[in-house]
């Protein structure tokens, strides 16, 4: 019986000692869950986030076919973006230069004039190859591109297919 009493007293003594250690302050290994509580109550804020990635869609027609008489041909295209953007325009043959041209497989060229018109508000009315062409986005922006030969062609222009590409890039 003495051994049982001795074991109980030892267990109580160890329990009191360990309680005294934790009562003196918070242990680094045991987080303090009561630091946001006051006499009135406690609170906790939980953040809620949603990330929407930037996106754009450019819809364009098949192409523009030039005539030899110098009369312009036009096509429209639309840009839809969910953020503000920069419209970066160029051509395959002339890059960012306004001195545009079409060329054939032999390297012969015919000068062209290419213009772009913005059919809305909130950006440059006539975007250029040299920019900057900043637009607010969040709506469908409509543009018209018109291309023509700089002058009417004479009957002795070298035969062949002359090409160029109008390049539309949307940058965020």
TrEMBL record:
Keywords: Signal. The keyword Signal applies. Residues 1-22 form the signal peptide. This is Spore coat protein U domain-containing protein. It comes from Acinetobacter wanghuae.
């Amino acid at each position: 019986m003495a051994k049982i009493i001795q074991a109980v007293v030892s267990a109580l003594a160890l329990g009191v000692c360990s309680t005294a250690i934790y009562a003196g302050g918070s242990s680094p290994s045991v987080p303090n869950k009561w630091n946001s509580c006051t006499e009135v109550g406690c609170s906790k804020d939980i953040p809620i986030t949603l990330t929407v990635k930037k996106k754009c869609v450019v819809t364009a027609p098949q192409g523009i076919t030039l005539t030899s008489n110098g009369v312009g041909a036009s096509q429209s295209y639309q840009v839809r973006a969910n953020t503000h953007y920069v419209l970066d325009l160029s051509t395959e043959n002339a890059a960012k230069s306004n001195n545009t041209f079409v060329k054939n497989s032999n390297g012969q060229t015919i000068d062209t004039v290419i213009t772009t018109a913005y059919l809305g508000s909130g950006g440059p009315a006539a975007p250029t190859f040299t920019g900057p062409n900043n637009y607010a986005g969040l709506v469908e922006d409509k543009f018209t591109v018109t291309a023509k030969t700089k002058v009417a062609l004479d009957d002795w222009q070298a035969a062949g297919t002359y090409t160029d590409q109008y390049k539309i890039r949307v940058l965020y």
